[in-house]
Amino acid sequence: MSDTTLYGFDGSTYVRTVRCVLTRKGVAYDQVPVNVLTGEPREPEHLARHPFGKVPVLDIDGMRLRETDAIVRYLDARNPEPAMFPADARARAKADENVALINSYGYGAIIGFVAYHLFPDLVGGKDDEARKANLGSARTLAKLVIENKGDAPFIGGGDAPGYADYLLGPLMAYATMTEDGPALLSVDGMQSWWDRLSADETFAATAPDLG
Ligand SMILES: N[C@@H](CCC(=O)N[C@@H](CS)C(=O)NCC(=O)O)C(=O)O
């Protein structure tokens, strides 16, 4: 039993981001698998933890933290090594931009076209126009994050995966399970980034068991 508890199931991309960071930093934790696909985040027990009905939530060091961004930045401040951001100010600014772009435009676009293929009932049916629009936005996002990483191997701006990699990676894992995956991987630089991230031990170890 540890005194750190992560609420959220392994199939959630945001929960996987936090699992990657906890694992990479060697922070022991227990997990309560609140399942998004069965609506558990909207049940009173979880609404008491996160009134907007979202996972992840992390109980750590006597406080409750909601929202992936706040959780990851706290973990990075608490356990600085290995760093989730580059030290150089300009590279850090671009890594921060990548995180913001993925959160603001990437998540909805990628989950949008993934849902079309994998969870059509969840989004109320098959809307091919929305699928195409979402795929287009996802390709725009991919071009930007690759451009922002410059010569760094990873979109988090470092020689090893950082926060931005662990944020986009779980989304890409779902994208590559669909027939639209190749269109996203065909963006210049995406395939080699994806190959590097897929070889990361922590990322591989956190792959959800989709049974
Ligand atoms: N802004 C939140 C978003 C988290 C989020 O969207 N989580 C999804 C799962 S990946 C969720 O809880 N969905 C449940 C729902 O919307 O009912 C964060 O960054 O942590």
Chart the SSEs and their pairings.
Layout: E1 5-7, H1 13-24, E2 30-32, H2 44-47, E3 57-60, E4 63-66, H3 68-78, H4 89-118, H5 128-149, H6 163-175, H7 181-185, H8 190-198, H9 201-205
Bound molecules: glutathione.
Glutathione (GSH) binds next to helix 1 and helix 3.
CATH architecture of the largest domain: Up-down Bundle
Low-confidence runs (pLDDT<50, min 5 residues)? none
Task: Give the C-alpha Rg.
Answer: 17 Å
Number of strands: 4
The helix count comes to 9
Strand content: 5-15%
The distinct bound ligands, ions and cofactors come out as: glutathione
CATH fold annotation of the largest domain: Glutathione S-transferase Yfyf (Class Pi), Chain A, domain 2
Largest sheet: 4 strands, mixed
User: From the helix content, strand content and strand pairing, which structural class follows?
Assistant: alpha+beta
Spell out the helices and strands N to C: EHEHEEHHHHHHH
Query: Strand order within the widest sheet?
Result: 2-1-3-4
Distance between the termini: 26 Å
Q: Classify the helix fraction into a percent range.
A: 40-55%
Total discrete domains: 2
Overall pLDDT: 96
How does this structure look, described?
The chain has 211 residues and is of the alpha+beta class. It has two domains: 5-78, Glutaredoxin, CATH 3.40.30; 89-205, Glutathione S-transferase Yfyf (Class Pi), Chain A, domain 2 (Up-down Bundle), CATH 1.20.1050.10. Helices cover 53% and strands 7% of the residues. The chain is built from nine helices and four strands. A four-stranded mixed sheet has the order 2-1-3-4, with helices on one face. A hairpin with a 2-residue loop joins β3 and β4 (63-66). The longest helix has 30 residues, at 89-118. The two termini are 26 Å apart.
